[in-house]
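Chain A, query sequence.
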Amino acid sequence: MEKYKMLGKQSIKFKNPPYIMGCASVVGEKEAEGPYGQYFEKLEMDPKAGEDTWEEAEGKFQEKAAELAIKNAGCKVTDIRYIVAGDLLGQLMASSFGLMKLDRPLFGVYGACSTMGESLAVASMIAEGGFADRVLAITSSHFASAERQFRFPLAYANQRKKSATWTVTGSGAVVVACAEGKKEEKSKVHIEGITTGKVTDYGVKDSMNMGACMAPAAAEVIVQNFIDFGYEPEMYDKIITGDLGLVGKDILIDIVHERGYDISGNYMDCGIEIYGSDQNVQSGGSGCGCSAVMLTGFIMHKLRAGEWKRVLFVPTGALLSQVSFNEGNSVPGIAHAVILRKEDL
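Chain A, predicted structure.
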C-alpha cells in the first residue's frame, strides 16, 4: 500500500490526480430562473419529467444528467467502469431506478446533502487507484420527493420558517478519469485531494434549521483540510459549502474563526447562491442536487476558464431520517471536502 497518499488524520493527496473528463447538470424551472440559470446545461420544464411520481421523476433527472455527462466526456456508456451514486430517498431509489438502464456496476452511497462530495471522493479513489479508467459520480434531489419524505405533503400548505431551505430539483453528474500524464490532460480540472468528514453532532433538533445542524461538520472538515494539507484559507480561490444557507453560513464562519482561520473573504455557499432573493426560498437552497448542479454548472465554468485555480468544494449533509426525527433524536451533520485544481502545466 502506498502510504504516502495518506495525509494527516483524514486526508488523501493523490500522486496522480484524476481529472474531470466531462460533467452535466439537469435542473427544474425554479433553478433555471435563478441567478445561475445560464450555467446549467439542461432545463426540465415538467417537474415530473414525464413520469407518474415525483420519485420516478428524480430518477429521470439522474438518467438525463448521466447520459449528458458521458456524452460531454466524449465516451460511451460502456466506457464507464463504475457508477458512484446517491440521493436523499429511502434505499436510494432515485439512483437505483434512474440509472438501471445504463447497466453499469453501481456503488450506492449516502451522505445526505453531502453526497456529491462523497461520490466524487470515492470515484476519485477508484480512478487514481487504477481500479477503473472512467467512473461516473452522480447525485440528485427533487423538491417534491424530499418534501414528501422528510417534511409535509405539499397539499398541507404549511408555513415555512425563515431558517428553512428549499430542496433543489436537479441532478449533477461528473465523469472522473485516471491521469496518465498526457499533455491534453494537464490543462483539465484535476482532483488534487480529499478530506473525509466525520459525523458531528452539536445536539440541534430543529429539522427546519439544517444549516445549524450541518455547519459544525463543515467547520470540522474545513479546518482539518487546512491542517492536513498545510494550506491557509487564502490558498483557495473559493471555499464552497453545499447548502448551509443564510443561518448556517454565519455559524460556520464563526466556528472556523474560533479555530484560528478566517474564511470570510473567499467563502460562498451553493444554497445561498442558487436562488435569487426574490424567489421566496427562506434561508436558501438545499438537497443533494444543490451542490451537484452548482459544481457541474458554475464552479466548473470558473475553473475551466482559469478564473479560479484551486477550489475547496465542501458539500454538507444533515443525517436525519423519518424514524430518527420521530424518536426525538438530534440531527447530526457531515461534510466532505474535495480539492479541485486547474493548472496549465
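The chain is about 35% helix and 20% strand. Residues 84 and 130 are 16 Å apart (CA to CA).
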